[in-house]
Write a sequence for this structure.
């Protein structure tokens, strides 16, 4: 008995991988031998590519002074379109993790870049611009190695008693003491960092962390509240003990959300204000 035409049509439509059906492209190649980790398996595709590029940045495949592969090369590497790679790089550039240089290519962003040197500092002068304040004058009041308290250890993802570097510095703008900061760094990644080295470095502190210790701060969380200083803090900031100040606690993270710095600052706001842009 021959099958009916209707049955033949049904069988043909149910046959997998019919030649007339479009095939899904193999969007990503198998993970290259030099590329650690797993190829992503979730969408959207540009976010997968962003994650792989971020993984390579985290593992130091490209140095800040080296141009990363072109969009064409990355597209060939992952077997995706250049548009997909471009969208991934656009997001990384918006996150200040990559920087495009006209006619030269795309590089890993560093805190030595002029436009990101103070991207975590939101204090702005009431009159003029941040540039009109000029570079901050920095004085290190204290710097020592100590054991992490339970509070500091918790915020830095350490164990209580682990070694940390604790420093206090005063920032002046136009000779006016404006910011008093206490900061804590995990001892392991910053082994060898001294008060002398901090004082001798004239660029942004985060640029020093990048160039000499290979630690890049890529994002930060802050808590802000109004406080009054104690007598020692008031003396350093040249204000009376009852003066209201802005307290900013910041935890800065490197890649993969690893905390690398705890910073607690007191800000004078008689001639400055804290400015943030929301979108």
């Amino acid at each position: 008995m021959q099958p009916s035409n209707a049955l033949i049509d049904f069988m043909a439509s149910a046959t997998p991988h019919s030649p007339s059906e479009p095939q899904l492209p193999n969007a990503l190649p198998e993970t290259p031998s030099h590329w650690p980790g797993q190829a992503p398996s979730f969408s959207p595709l540009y976010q997968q590519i962003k994650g792989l590029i971020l993984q390579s940045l985290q593992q130091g495949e490209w140095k800040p002074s080296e141009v990363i592969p072109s969009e064409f090369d990355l597209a060939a590497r992952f077997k995706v379109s250049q548009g997909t790679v471009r969208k991934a790089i656009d997001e990384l550039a918006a996150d200040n993790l990559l920087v495009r240089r006209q006619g030269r290519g795309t590089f890993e962003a560093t805190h030595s870049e002029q436009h990101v040197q103070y991207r975590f500092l939101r204090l702005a002068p009431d009159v003029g611009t941040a540039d009109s304040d000029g570079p901050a004058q920095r004085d290190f009041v204290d710097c020592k190695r100590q054991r992490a308290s339970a509070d500091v250890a918790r915020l830095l993802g350490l164990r209580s008693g682990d070694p940390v570097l604790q420093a206090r510095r005063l920032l002046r703008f136009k000779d006016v003491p404006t910011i008093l900061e206490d900061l804590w760094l995990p001892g392991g990644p910053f082994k060898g960092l001294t008060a002398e080295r901090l004082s001798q470095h004239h660029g942004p502190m985060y640029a020093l962390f990048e160039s000499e210790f290979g630690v890049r701060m890529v994002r930060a969380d802050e808590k802000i509240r109004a406080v009054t200083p104690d007598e020692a803090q008031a003396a350093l900031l040249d204000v009376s003990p009852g003066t209201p100040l802005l307290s900013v606690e910041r935890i800065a993270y490197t890649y993969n959300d690893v905390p690398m710095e705890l910073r607690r600052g007191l800000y004078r706001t008689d001639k400055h204000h804290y400015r943030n842009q929301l979108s």
Observations:
- The chain has two domains: 39-109, 114-274.
- The two ends are 70 Å apart (CA to CA).
- The CA atoms of residues 17 and 23 lie 8 Å apart.
- Residues 45-58 form the longest helix (14 residues).
